[in-house]
């Protein structure tokens, strides 16, 4: 059949080949007329760690926005050549980026002779300006007089990307003009900056790309090097509808594993389990440096609008029998801190407290027909610390009194002054003094604020930042 059509096939192929040669020739000629220079090509590629910053990048125009007067100007990286340059990649929607800004400004002030911090965002002037309009009282709002950022960026992000594609992160350029690599905020410490400004970059912990497949799959693909798992895993998930709120622990003696689970539990309770502490559930013993303290408060009377479908979690852990409980709880705490967007920990801090003092007066009795409850002093302190209707500082019993006292309705439901009055009637007092207390601290993921320098305000839901607006 092909032989019968040869007369038609050959002329057709000849024409097609000729046409293709013409196209290739035109394309080759066009490419030769307008070649893409190596420098321009590099501007769209990631710069490898350790390489020199090339001239085209030093001189590329960048739009710098000034928060003080909402103005913009054109700058270049070359303006700061010879200093350590820290490119701080951020966005207005990134809470951890914003929380980190005051710390970066403090570091900038400390090393201003040898370092420059340049925030960089892809967002527009309007978007960034709106952030400062609505955040006047917050940490970043207070930086308005000195805050600057590169706007509408695509060039620097392409040249200095985070291999994992997340923010915040920093790109470091050394005094020698070499790219030192990308790092995350927790690694950019005062010590590291001091090393960089001294010309020593040996301690820069570079970010690395995540594996392209799950680690267990990757390990299994290595064949003889594969070792079977020993039955340890943890899992954290959001609310599971229809599962109720059970908790429990079971042992599988055949497999040699132990399993514990917490279904649909408030996040503060899970932190309490992980820390082996009741403080996350006690409002006057927690410091809530988060955007909203009330949303985490699951107390049904103090916060009737609590949303369990949003803020309750499920957690489980399976581990070999005999694993130390401390290790299991440490892993649980690490999972909660890494995966929930907030970080919980126990700290010791001097806090305003209400101290029950005195020796008591056995002759004191409640008024006739007064509805009272007789309690020992430990129970009185516990009851006051559990008050959900008012904000009351931590109450501590320092009397050593082992008898019982009476509490009437005015003390159980009234103000601190009412409690003091009832105690004074029985030979005790309620004195306001500072004490060093263990406190539960909850912060947004990368919050690095100096807790000792913060002004705190007590609310029904816990201590919050002193400027208010965070309840």
Automatic annotation (TrEMBL):
Going by the entry's taxonomy, the superkingdom of the source organism is recorded as Bacteria
Q: Name one GO molecular function term.
A: antioxidant activity
Q: What processes does the entry annotate via GO biological process terms?
A: cytochrome complex assembly
Q: Which UniProt keywords apply?
A: Cytochrome c-type biogenesis, Disulfide bond, Membrane, Redox-active center, Transmembrane, Transmembrane helix
Pfam families attached here? AhpC-TSA
Keyword Cell wall biogenesis/degradation found: no
The compartments listed are: Cell envelope
Transmembrane ranges, per UniProt, are: 6-27
> Record's PANTHER family?
THIOL:DISULFIDE INTERCHANGE PROTEIN DSBE
**By what name is this protein known?**
Thioredoxin domain-containing protein
């Amino acid at each position: 059949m092909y032989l019968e059509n040869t007369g038609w096939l050959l002329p057709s192929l000849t024409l097609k080949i000729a046409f293709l040669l013409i196209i290739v020739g035109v394309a080759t000629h066009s490419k030769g007329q307008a070649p893409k220079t190596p420098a321009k090509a590099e501007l769209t590629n990631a710069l490898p760690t350790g390489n020199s910053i090339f001239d085209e990048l030093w001189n590329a125009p960048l739009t710098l926005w000034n928060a003080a007067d909402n103005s913009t100007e054109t700058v270049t990286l070359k303006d700061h050549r010879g200093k350590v340059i820290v490119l701080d990649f951020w966005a207005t929607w990134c809470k951890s980026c914003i929380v980190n800004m005051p710390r970066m400004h403090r570091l900038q002030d400390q090393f201003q002779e040898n370092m420059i911090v340049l925030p960089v965002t892809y967002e527009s002037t309007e978007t960034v300006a709106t952030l400062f309009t609505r955040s006047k009282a917050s940490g970043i709002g207070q930086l308005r007089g000195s805050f600057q950022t590169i706007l509408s960026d695509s060039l620097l992000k392409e040249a200095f990307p985070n291999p994992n594609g997340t923010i915040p992160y920093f790109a470091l350029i050394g005094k020698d003009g070499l790219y030192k690599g990308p790092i995350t905020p927790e690694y950019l410490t005062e010590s590291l900056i001091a090393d960089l400004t001294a010309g020593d970059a040996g301690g820069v912990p570079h970010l690395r790309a995540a594996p392209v497949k799950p680690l267990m799959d990757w390990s299994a693909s290595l064949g003889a090097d594969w070792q079977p798992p020993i039955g340890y895993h943890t899992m954290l998930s959001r609310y599971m509808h229809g599962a109720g709120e059970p908790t429990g622990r079971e042992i599988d003696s055949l497999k040699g594993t132990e399993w514990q689970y917490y279904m649909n539990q408030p996040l503060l309770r899970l932190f309490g389990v992980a820390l082996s502490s009741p403080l996350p559930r006690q409002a006057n013993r927690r410091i809530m440096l988060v955007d909203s303290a009330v949303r985490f408060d699951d107390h049904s009377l103090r916060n009737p609008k609590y949303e369990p479908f949003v803020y309750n979690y499920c957690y489980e852990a399976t581990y070999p029998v005999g694993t130390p409980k401390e290790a299991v709880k440490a892993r649980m705490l690490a999972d909660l801190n890494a995966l929930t967007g907030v970080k919980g920990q126990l700290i010791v801090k001097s806090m305003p407290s209400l101290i029950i003092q005195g020796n008591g007066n056995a002759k004191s009795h409640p008024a006739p027909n007064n509805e009272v409850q007789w309690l020992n002093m430990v129970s009185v302190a516990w009851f006051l610390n559990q008050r959900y209707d008012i904000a009351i500082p931590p109450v501590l019993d320092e009397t050593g009194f082992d008898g019982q006292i009476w509490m009437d309705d005015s003390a159980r439901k009234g103000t601190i002054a009412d409690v003091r009055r009832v105690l004074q009637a029985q030979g005790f007092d309620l004195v306001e003094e500072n004490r060093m207390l263990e406190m539960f601290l909850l912060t947004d993921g990368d919050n690095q604020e100096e807790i000792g320098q913060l002004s705190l305000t007590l609310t029904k839901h816990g201590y919050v930042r002193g400027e208010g607006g965070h309840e």
